[in-house]
Amino acid sequence: MATPVHDWVVPKLDALLGEAMQNGMDREVVVAVITDIITGPGYNDAVVREEDAPQPTGLTDPAQEPIPSNTLPVSRPEWFVYAPSALPDPQE
After folding, report:
1. pLDDT tens track for 16-38
2. Predicted TM-score of the model (pTM)
3. 52: number of CA atoms within 13 Å, CB side?
4. In this predicted model, what pLDDT tens digit does every residue of 64-75 receive, in sequence order?
5. Would you report the helix, strand and coil content of the chain in percent, each value rounded to 5?
6. What distance, in Å, lies between the first and last C-alpha atoms of the chain?
7. Is-contact 17 27, C-beta < 8 A?
8. SS3 34
């Protein structure tokens, strides 16, 4: 979205990124730091009216999203032939 503010900010951010990269900084890291600063409490103090706030849907509401898990519950150990209890003890 091009607005006068956008047109004013973009060249300054581009110059900041260019200077950071000339000083040996990784572009992605600088962008991540800028994003962290801007979205943090020091800058992001905008008041969002309730009617303008994003409305949760089944696809975006974290309360309705499945919780990722690194492990699956083992309900049938016989399915896992090499379960830790079935492996020989290395100390023997």
Report:
1. 999 999 999 999 999 999 998 88
2. 0.48
3. 4
4. 555 566 555 556
5. 50, 0, 50
6. 68
7. yes
8. helix
